[in-house]
Amino acid sequence: MTPSQTLPWIEALMLESTTKPRSFQEIILRLQAYWAQKGCAILQPYDMEVGAGTFHPATTLRSLGSQPWAAAYVQPSRRPTDGRYGENPNRLQHYYQYQVLIKPSPPDLQELYLGSLRAIGIDDALHDIRFVEDDWESPTLGAWGLGWEVWCDGMEVSQFTYFQQVGGHDCKPVSGELTYGLERLAMYVLGVDHVMEMPFNDPEAPIALSYGDVFRQTEQEYSRWNFDQAETAMLLQHFEDAEAECQRILDAPHDDPTTSKRIIMVHPAYDQCIKASHLFNLLDARGVISVTERQAYIGRVRALAKLCADAFVQTEAGGWAA
Amino acid sequence: MPDVLIELFSEEIPARMQRRAAEDLRKLVTDGLVDGGLTYAHARAYSTPRRLTLAIEGLSEQSPTLREERKGPKVAAPEKAIEGFLRSTGLTLEQLEQREDKKGAFYLATIEKPGRAAPVILAEVLESAIRNFPWPKSMRWGAGSLRWVRPLHSILCVMTRDDGTEVVPFELDGITAGDTTRGHRFMAPDEIKVTGFEDYAAKLKRAFVVLDAEERAASIAHDIETRAFALGLELVEDSGLLAEVSGLVEWPVVLVGEIEEQFLDLPPEVLQTSMREHQKFFSLRDPKDGRIVRFVTVANRDTADQGATILRGNQKVLAARLADAKFFWENDLRVIANVGLSGMAEGLTNVTFHNKLGSQKARIDRISALAREIAPLVEADPDLAEQAAQIAKADLQSAMVGEFPELQGTMGVYYARAAGLPDAVANACKAHYQPLGPSDDVPSDPISVAVALADKIDTLTGFWAINEKPTGSKDPFALRRAALGVIRLVVTNALRLSLYERAFLALAKHVGHLAAEEDFAPVRPAIEALRGQVNDDVLQAFAAQFEDEKIRARELDKAPTEARPDVALGLSLAQDLLTFLHDRLKVYLRDQGIRHDVIDACLAMPGNDDLTLLVKRARALSELLKTADGPNLLQGFKRANSILTQAEENDGVEYSFGADVKYAETDEEHTLFAALDSAEAAITPAMQAEDFAAAMHAMAGLRAPIDAFFEAVQINTDSQVLRRNRLNLLSRIRTICGGVADFTKLDG
């Protein structure tokens, strides 16, 4: 993608990249402005519990098929086992990822990425930025790709991946995926040692809020629920239900009797797949899944992801032509 | 003769793949050029994180013209045949020659293949090299179909002659070869035009790229040493890390950073693992107390603030990691204080070792029982050996090993000491995994040896019992390493044990465990039938094992099912495992310069599952064969053996007894009789004492008398009495030599 002329409304948002951002939200806003300027559709977070930005259908499903795509968004992500009651300086059960997906991957994706670091105040003349081998694999999504962790002064600030397969399908063309761990990146840029101390809005705002003001209590509540209280029998049942529903809707005839149109219900089915994945994570945090069962559960989620991928490539958005 | 410069410029190549890839590029291209009929004087490949480079000197300008003569049909052949021949050669009738042979006149075609220009061949070879490059993993990008390790951006391919530089015309999936490259990603990102290798290397250096990985490594090593020396510290040598780091940077800049005081009391292995595995930091230690007090990071650029920002960032990341490690360390110590190591190990009941071989806990119980049995053989206290085996893997449940799996065993030692266990027990936590490879240390403390041996025998017999043996290059459970471990533990510590019996007993337990639901009653006749193949104690232990299983099966009210020949299975698996161990032993001894035929000659002797005895014998025999007497004695033996074998075949009798000195006619016969008597007198006690060196020495003394005997004495005389006596005398040579090793297996 070649940088287009700066749009006026974005110009208003784009801050001098030589100034340091002052808050968590400013980093998010600058990333949004930067990727909007580079031509991405700025999407909103997916309204379901997911483990990572990759689960958003804008990545998982849109990386399939031949249609071009360019999207960027913030995705709240949940990893129940990482909960630390808000006490660990770096670990949270709920955190934010910034996700960019461009298909086909542009030849200057590395340069675009480095530009985004400059936009949030990381000056590569002073910092040591490195692309260190890291092959990405998601056993639950049946997906893998090659790429790097990006290091800034020895710290991993992003994951950079060229998708090769998703849901068992070869990615043609290949999507380039960028994932920023927002809290960690922001803590580094803002020079904060404990996530809860990080300014969420501007520190000089009349009502200045820290990350802890927003999330300390929720981290405690969810940590307790995730580890000790979540009703496992119910979660197990929900898992079974989500799995069954996903399969059932994909088995339904493609032709809709109400509209007489061909409507494959991929997204509703994929919602159930995401749900099953998150329920598995919750069960895992409750410690009720043994080592041997683990693989079996992951395999069941992967099977759903594969069904959804198979169905998506038969839809218009997936490149299907009647 | 032109020189060639090739550069494949891409996004960052994984460090671990760079060197191999540079070599592959050199080989693929130069082999291709030679196959295409070109010659070259010299070729060298280089790699950096973003480029593979190949410099070829003295390439020939073109491939030679090739002439091929092809015999065609007879001149009188039907027109169709001649037309076909013309078509296949691409010639006209006028261009054919006529020749004569004894069958008559025939056509001869001379096909000329003109030589091709080097750039044409080079372009073909390079395209094929890129398309068929053996990356361990490769990928596609964008909308293209080309595969490379990461997106390939540009190709530089030029030929340099005295009169200038020529770009080799070449295009690959939209990438056109040119004469430009780029410097350092951040410090000199602009295009650079080059004329040849010298120019290229020099311009790259000005653009902050050190092309040669060796040079980068040497400069890193040198800078670290200088900095360490100035601080009065020493580098913890780490050649693997040095190679990796030199593949992560094009412009290495060494920076030394501090480790916060609060972390300096962590075990040095923890510091080093956090630093090395996660951050690729080197460690500097204080030579006075061996503590690690500084880290070294290698940045990829110069900065205006002399790396201050970079160092601050790295220090912060390290502090966060070490804070985690400190949390795990303190947490683990608290768990041990509360519930002890055995409490920590409890969770291993729920950890599957292998789905057919049960949990880690079940495995630990088997190893404990085995360690107890082995303990007396290594002069270890059986109680302590069992205790050590019970806690040796407890650290697998610790938070620290959960986070840093490579610290398994190492943490065990710290935690066992913290639990107040004696050093000999604690050390087994680490030592029982050893030796981890052919160059790793072999434990020598008796308790560690007992547990290490038990661990490896359990692993080998377990996977043998479920038929998961290594095949070809596939050895997912590292059984070859385990076998070499058994060999080195036994041989280095001069342990005396019958591995066949040990393997058999352990296999019996595995087979029994695996078949716990079967009825074992009909096994007894099979045991009886096999009596004599292994000794009674072993059979009884085996029978008892099955008796237990039978009782258990009955208690569980399992219906008896069909009988299976378990004993035979156990025996054949044990034999198979022993053969595997012998194969590994051959490799091990061959690496020590002992010939395979020497090993075969010793393997043919009884007691070959006692590896200490076997190796002692092989070493002594190998030494004997290195002396002047050895090969001559072997010749003498072979001659005696072949005469004797032939005579025995012809006569249909065995000459094995009754050589009598009174029938000796010549001095040489008398001398041989006397020499055999004295050799026997020396060899018999030496063999009883297993002093193979002495036995071999005594045997070597036979060489001269045997030589003299064959020189002077005719075996096949008319006198049957004399002939028989001499054959019986030869038989004594065969017996004496054969008692030490199977000389018939030796080459020469």
Automatic annotation (TrEMBL), chain B:
Q: Which reaction does it catalyse?
A: tRNA(Gly) + glycine + ATP = glycyl-tRNA(Gly) + AMP + diphosphate
The alphabetized UniProt keywords are: Aminoacyl-tRNA synthetase, ATP-binding, Cytoplasm, Ligase, Nucleotide-binding, Protein biosynthesis
| GO terms for biological process, alphabetical | arginyl-tRNA aminoacylation; glycyl-tRNA aminoacylation
Q: Could you name the Gene Ontology cellular component terms for this entry?
A: cytosol
- Compartments it resides in: Cytoplasm
Q: Which Pfam families match?
A: DALR_1, tRNA_synt_2f
Cite the GO molecular-function annotations of the record.
Answer: arginine-tRNA ligase activity; ATP binding; glycine-tRNA ligase activity
Recorded hits in SUPFAM superfamilies, A to Z, give: HD-domain/PDEase-like
Q: Which residues form the DALR anticodon binding domain?
A: 636-735
Q: EC number(s)? A: 6.1.1.14
Complex and partners: Tetramer of two alpha and two beta subunits.
Q: Show the PANTHER family listed in the entry.
A: GLYCINE--TRNA LIGASE, CHLOROPLASTIC_MITOCHONDRIAL 2, GLYCYL-TRNA SYNTHETASE
Family membership noted in the UniProt record: Belongs to the class-II aminoacyl-tRNA synthetase family.
- Identify this protein by name: Glycine--tRNA ligase beta subunit
